[in-house]
């Protein structure tokens, strides 16, 4: 009976209202008769002695009609209910989805308790049950109830657990999704395993985890539109951070040579299958590293996270597809791969007019004053869709990367990579720009773009420049979306990897 679920059809709004009224009346009765076997509607505690998973692990071997001799007290949500004459059956589900059958018989609990069970217990209620662990005549691991109590009365009925919840219901009512769907619970656990793995990998390499401000007087660290709020205490506008980068670099200036942060970022932009206005982000900085060493670290971080979830570097997505994250990942150059795809050399010296011609020939609409933006958009059009394996795309245009060090041997590009997995950008890494004079020049150029109406351009941050003037060692840095990491490991969309995503 462990696989049995409610057989109720989907309820109409009127039926839900009617059930709610009935359940509210039961709640009142439970409160009025708190001394009865049901014990009230919301007791402060119930005498739980073990968990449903622990009972299954210990006594799952019992043969049909066999008894354990052990009395346990467990609690769970009622997900199946069948009331007959002298023997009632229910299935209790624990938070992780593990289930066990409970049997409430006249002989074991008496007439008053059995009647209360039939009258007061509904699907969705949290119920405490105490009794001996047995196996039923059909071989179903069960608890023969001697005592029971309502642990929390559900006022609204559960959705029909036979039917798959719609995506809209899953996203807007994640608590129902967690009750009804094993995959939803697995998503939460997989995310926790992945983040714990990231922290272990950093700890093994002597990285220090810090927290930096989410409310900032000046937004920076990425090209994105910020959310703006107002501080009454300081009577000033503040920005929800779009990135922690400029503060983490201050930490490196201060001597925290290996530093990282896992926390929330906010960008006032569109939402789609790979973007959310609020998202979890990992950023890390390694003094005396560069974009090559930070790429090596990023590969290790992701491969370790995959192993933490699936036990190997080969992950299985929700649709059953296997994806291999093992081995050494490909590294290609943006300009070289674009040249190969277009069939002619594309370099940092390629005139803007030629880039516009190619874009027009392909039907790509780009309105931007920077040639580097055209190069990136053309690369996405020609090359991105052909990447199958995890791939680091190296050496970006200098004019679109204001926080990145110029390439040590190639003119017009910077030492930056983007990592593509599953066809989307998962992470980015730099050889960090640590020269305060050059950084000021880059900020000035960004300020000009902002003045011309570019809402994503960075502002000139004097406090950050002052920190750089005290000397930041050569460093490699990286950023990776935690939500996107889970997308890469599970094959799910971003709204499934975020527990409570923002929706209209």
From TrEMBL:
Q: What is its EC number?
A: 6.1.1.6
Xref: InterPro entries: Aa-tRNA-synt_II, aa-tRNA-synth_II, aa-tRNA-synth_II/BPL/LPL, Lys-tRNA-ligase_II, Lys-tRNA-ligase_II_N, Lys-tRNA-synth_II_C, NA-bd_OB-fold, NA-bd_OB_tRNA
UniProt KW Protein biosynthesis keyword = yes
- The gene name on file is lysS
Q: Quote the subunit structure annotation.
A: Homodimer.
> GO cellular-component terms in the record?
cytosol
| Organism of origin | Leifsonia poae
Name listed for the protein in its UniProt record = Lysine--tRNA ligase
Q: Gene3D superfamilies from the entry? A: Bira Bifunctional Protein, Domain 2, Nucleic acid-binding proteins
Which terms does the record give in the GO molecular function aspect?
ATP binding; lysine-tRNA ligase activity; magnesium ion binding; tRNA binding
Kindly list the organism's lineage.
Answer: Bacteria, Bacillati, Actinomycetota, Actinomycetes, Micrococcales
Which compartments does it reside in? Cytoplasm
The record's annotation in Pfam families points to: tRNA-synt_2, tRNA_anti-codon
- Cofactor binding comment, as recorded: Binds 3 Mg(2+) ions per subunit.
Domain of life here? Bacteria
Q: Could you tell me the keywords of this UniProt record?
A: Aminoacyl-tRNA synthetase, ATP-binding, Cytoplasm, Ligase, Magnesium, Metal-binding, Nucleotide-binding, Protein biosynthesis
Q: Quick check: keyword Protein biosynthesis in the entry?
A: yes
Cofactor(s) the protein requires to work: Mg(2+)
Binding, Mg(2+) 1: 418, 425
Q: Which reaction does it catalyse?
A: tRNA(Lys) + L-lysine + ATP = L-lysyl-tRNA(Lys) + AMP + diphosphate
> Major location, coarse class?
cytoplasm
């Amino acid at each position: 009976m462990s696989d049995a679920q409610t057989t109720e059809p989907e309820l109409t709004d009127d039926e839900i209202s009617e059930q709610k009224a009935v359940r509210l009346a039961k709640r009142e009765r439970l409160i009025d008769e708190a001394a009865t076997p049901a014990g009230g509607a919301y007791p402060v505690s119930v005498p739980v002695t073990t968990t449903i998973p622990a009972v299954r692990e210990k006594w799952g071997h019992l043969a049909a009609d066999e008894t354990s001799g052990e009395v346990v007290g467990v609690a769970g949500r009622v997900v199946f209910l069948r009331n007959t004459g002298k023997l009632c059956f229910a299935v209790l589900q624990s938070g992780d989805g593990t289930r066990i059958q409970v049997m409430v018989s006249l002989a074991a609990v008496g007439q008053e308790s059995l009647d209360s069970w039939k009258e007061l217990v509904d699907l969705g209620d949290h119920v405490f049950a105490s009794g001996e662990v047995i196996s039923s005549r059909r071989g179903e691991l069960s608890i023969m109830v001697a005592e029971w109590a309502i642990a929390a009365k559900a006022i609204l009925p559960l959705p029909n657990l036979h039917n798959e919840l719609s995506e809209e219901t899953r996203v807007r009512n994640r608590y129902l999704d967690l009750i009804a769907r094993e995959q939803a619970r697995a998503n939460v656990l997989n995310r926790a395993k992945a983040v714990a793995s990231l922290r272990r990998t950093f700890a093994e390499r002597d990285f220090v985890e810090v927290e930096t401000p989410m409310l900032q007087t000046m937004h920076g660290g990425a090209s994105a539109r910020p959310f703006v709020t107002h501080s009454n205490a300081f009577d000033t506008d503040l920005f929800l951070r779009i990135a922690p980068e400029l503060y983490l670099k201050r930490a490196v200036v201060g001597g925290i040579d290996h530093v990282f942060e896992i926390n929330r970022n906010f960008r006032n932009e569109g939402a789609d299958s790979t973007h959310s206005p609020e998202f979890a982000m990992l950023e890390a900085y390694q003094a005396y590293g560069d974009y090559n060493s930070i790429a090596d670290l990023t590969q290790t971080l992701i491969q370790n996270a995959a192993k933490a979830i699936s036990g190997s570097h080969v992950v299985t997505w929700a649709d059953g597809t296997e994806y291999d994250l093992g081995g050494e990942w490909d590294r290609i150059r943006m300009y070289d791969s674009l040249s190969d795809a277009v069939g002619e050399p594309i370099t940092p010296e390629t005139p803007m007019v030629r880039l516009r011609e190619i874009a027009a020939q392909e039907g790509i609409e780009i309105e931007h004053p920077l040639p580097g933006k055209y190069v990136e958009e053309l690369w996405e059009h020609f090359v991105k869709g052909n990447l199958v394996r995890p791939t680091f795309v190296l050496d970006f245009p200098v004019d679109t990367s204001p926080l990145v060090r110029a390439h040590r041997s190639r003119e017009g590009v910077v030492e930056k990579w983007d990592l593509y997995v599953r066809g989307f950008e998962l992470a980015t890494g730099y050889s960090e720009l640590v020269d305060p004079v050059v950084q000021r020049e880059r900020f000035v150029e960004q300020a000009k773009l902002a003045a011309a109406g570019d809402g994503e351009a960075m502002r000139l941050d004097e406090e950050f420049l002052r920190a750089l003037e005290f000397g930041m060692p050569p460093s490699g840095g990286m950023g990776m979306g935690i939500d996107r990491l889970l997308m890469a490991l599970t094959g799910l969309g971003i709204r499934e990897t975020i527990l409570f995503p923002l929706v209209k």
